[in-house]
Amino acid sequence: MNEQLQPLKKPTRVGKAGRSGTQDDIVYAHIFEAILEQRLAPGTKLSEEALGEIFGVSRTIIRRALSRLAHESVVLLRPNRGAVVASPTVEEARQVFFSRRMVERAITELAVLHATPEQLNELRLMVREERDSFSRGDRGAGIRLSGEFHLKLAEAAGNAPLISFQRSLVSQTSLIIAQYESGNRSHCSYDEHMQLIDAIEARDAEQAVSLMMHHMDHIDSKLNLDEESASDDLHAVFSHLLQTKKRGGSVSAKG
Amino acid sequence: MNEQLQPLKKPTRVGKAGRSGTQDDIVYAHIFEAILEQRLAPGTKLSEEALGEIFGVSRTIIRRALSRLAHESVVLLRPNRGAVVASPTVEEARQVFFSRRMVERAITELAVLHATPEQLNELRLMVREERDSFSRGDRGAGIRLSGEFHLKLAEAAGNAPLISFQRSLVSQTSLIIAQYESGNRSHCSYDEHMQLIDAIEARDAEQAVSLMMHHMDHIDSKLNLDEESASDDLHAVFSHLLQTKKRGGSVSAKG
DNA sequence: GATTATGCGTTTGTATACAAATAATGCAAA
DNA sequence: TTTGCATTATTTGTATACAAACGCATAATC
């Protein structure tokens, strides 16, 4: 019955993701976190009733949470056909990265101007957590913390519209990584994150922006967005059939 | 009973704002249009039941429309206290304009690269409509079309995340204009819009961006965001009591 | 044998009923 | 007259019931 929702495990503790908000905030945060940690794969069907049972709330709440996620383009809401985790196409991925470059540049410049020592401390703390997660082998948490770092940086910039936009972009980026990351090495982004904080603390705007732009380059150099621009949806469908577990070089050529 | 919703008139024709979507799309579009045309003033209470009666749908639909509007920061959704049309503070207004500068620059550069002749034609058509509206004295429609011009330009740029962000920023800008515009002359933006299209058609990126930035300057030079930074909410409360209809110079001094 | 039609089961869309929270009103006391 | 409190009324939050749409499976027809 609920076999479509295999990756979603019932969260026993409402601690981390559940903020002190209303019920739909909790559901939203949990699904958002599940996507950020890639426990929910792109294309996964999100049945309202199943989710309602899992979280112990009615469909009304689930529906609102999905609506918010859909507005951030993290979830695709097809009329009369339910919600699925979005599967960004290559073109959509490019657009997201373009926007992110623009936003991250602005955020970095603002953070250099406005970030308080407390915020810089918090950022450092997050990077350490991120590093620990990766070294512990908890890739999911690492990716989530990496995303939250960029979100926190947006908060340090202190521009509300930018924060909300960044939230949408970061979660979409996570989806894109889940879908297109070439299985090379893991995200060793924490090193770049730390350098970035140093530059911001030194109030060196030029250096900070330069580091951020290189960071962006590194992120999308790990993806293979060059291929499959033609057989788009089809490839997404067949990808897990062709290379179920063996991530290898034999498929690297376009073909 | 419904005296709080005085500015909202029941739209007899569903033509312009009502797209071929589901019911909540129609409600969303109507409220959005009403805000864009400033028939709904900042702070106006948006009762779910009243709106439901007006549009002939249940609260469920209204609720979804309000939720979408809230996510675009056009409507403020206070827990257990209902929805109101947002009243941006001076600081929020500054943040919106900062973001808009950033986005409009990117949009202009992309439009120079990607705008098709058809899109340029459509843009010109919109500017003519805008000009006609102003010369006809229909200031509301003029402001709406001015906003839709910037939205259309975002579409011509062809970047989906940017479009959605721009939608949010444009509607917030309209709110800000409603709240802070000094009653000088009307928005003669259509002239600048037309020049902008010319520069884009000529594929002159530098000129187009320069025009756009000046356009942004003009927009916020019409606002008086410099004052009232201290007595923020209080002033908003008293403003319509002090100068109900007489827009004059006697109140211009900060005091 | 392939393709289209039809019925059934499941899932979403919408309305409404009930519970909870907030705002308004009236009364009493200082 | 004003301030504080208690009660009432209105409004929002949530759950659920019913209707409509979709997908799948079976069956009938070409």
Automatic annotation (TrEMBL), chains A, B:
Entries under InterPro entries matching the protein: GntR_C (IPR011711), TF_FadR/GntR_C (IPR008920), Tscrpt_reg_HTH_GntR (IPR000524), WH-like_DNA-bd_sf (IPR036388), WH_DNA-bd_sf (IPR036390)
Stored SMART domains: FCD, HTH_GNTR
Stretches the record annotates as Disordered: 1-20
Coiled-coil residues: none
Key words, A-Z: DNA-binding, Transcription, Transcription regulation
Domain annotation HTH gntR-type: ranges: 21-88
Protein name as it appears in the record: GntR family transcriptional regulator
